[in-house]
Amino acid sequence: MNPRAWQLLHLLSDGDFHSGEDLARELGVSRATVFNDLTSASESGVQLQRIRGRGYRLHGGWQPYDRKEIERFLGSAAPRFALEIAHQIASSNTELLRRPELISGTVLAVELQTAGRGRLGRPWHSGLNNALTFSLLWRFDCGLNALSGLSLAVGVAVMRALKRFDAKGAGLKWPNDIVAPHGKLGGVLIEAQGDMYGPSIVVIGIGFNCSLPARIDELINQPAAALDQICAKSPGRNELLAALLCELALVLDEFSRNGFAALKEQWEEHHAHRDAQVFLQMPDGTQVSGIARGVSDSGELRLETEQGTRQYHVGEVGLRS
Ligand code: BTN
Asked: Which of 70, 199, 227, 304 places its Cα 20 to 30 Å from the Cα of 215?
């Protein structure tokens, strides 16, 4: 979408009808230009309605990221973060990885990711206004070899943030999927750079389904869920982002001091497959079955198998029916 299309979307963010004529006047362009820009916006997945005689409307309105709002919700934690907000970018993780000179605490929140990336090389699908997609760059004094369990620690921070909004039935699927009973709510993609013995830079990318329009649901090739299905009053994206950042700062400090071991018990409290019969799909295509018995001090999944309790650091967990 071109910058003018984004300007138009801001004008339409109240969710009310605006005539093509008014929009054109506001931007000093022709009605045909408004039509073309908004057509390109709807091709990017924006839910736009056009009714003859009434004009254009952004279905459900749009609450853009707002730096002041986010900082207000961050409160005393605000100085720990350097916020960047982008309209449209391929992937916030890719962007921050490209800029390792950035200070620790840099956050890139993106309205529309056009090539969001998930774990294991999968795509991450989200549309404008239905998702929270952001990445946080964090520097650690320790090396890459001391970061095991970090992705699970991030899951603990996410659960603490969700608790603030009374998200019913949310849990963690190993290693760090955020799940509701009927599908995946969000995911975490952690990518690290640095030396084995330190220091290291980590980019923590988090994607959350705030709502789930059919168009996005169809793209996701697994059962998906959204926050508005499990929260009595789902938070706005600015408030949700701030809550996640506050909890991340606390958890990452804790992780720096004591590693994952100090957070393991909290992770296990939220383990969606605790004591359940599961299988682990390994990258080489084999499967291991067992009972999920929590995680190790460094974040490996503990499975009680017929051969005894084993620990795994890779694999995709599924529920045995
Ligand atoms: C997963 O596969 O579960 C991880 C999904 C992570 C998605 C987020 S959205 C923000 C950040 N940018 C990306 O390209 N991916 C992560």
From this structure: 70
Q: Answer yes or no: do 37 and 179 share one domain.
A: no
Q: Are strands 82-89 and 106-113 parallel, antiparallel or unpaired?
A: parallel
91 C-alpha to ligand 1 centroid (Å) = 8
201-242 tens-digit pLDDT: 999 999 999 998 888 888 888 999 999 999 988 899 999 999
Residue of minimum CA distance from atom 9 in ligand 1: 207
- Same domain, yes or no: 46 and 97: no
Rounded Cα gap, residues 291 and 202, in angstroms: 32
Q: Which atom of ligand 1 lies nearest, measured to the CA of 131?
A: 9
Atom of ligand 1 nearest to the CA of 116: 14
Residues 24 and 34: beta-carbon distance below 8 Å: yes
* Domain identity same for 148 and 261: yes
Domain count, the chain: 3
Residue with the smallest CA separation from ligand 1 atom 15 is: 117
Same domain for 253 and 282? Answer: no
Atom of ligand 1 nearest to the CA of 115: 14
- Kindly report, residue by residue over 137-172, the tens digit of the pLDDT: 999 999 898 999 999 999 999 999 999 999 999 999
Q: Which residue range(s) make up the domain with 312? A: 273-319
What is d(CA 277, CA 258) in angstroms, rounded to the nearest whole number?
31
Residues with C-beta less than 6 Å from any ligand 1 atom: 91-93, 113, 116-119, 122, 124, 133-135, 177, 187-189, 205-207
Asked if residues 281 and 318 have their Cβ atoms less than 8 Å apart, the reply is yes
Q: Identify whether residues 125 and 78 lie together within a single domain.
A: yes
110, 92, 131: which is closest to 227 by C-alpha? 131
Task: Give 123 Cα–ligand 1 centroid separation in angstroms.
Answer: 8
Residue with tokens 């999920």: 292
Closest CA to 114 of 99, 132, 127, 130: 127
Ligand 1 centre distance from Cα of residue 118 (Å): 5
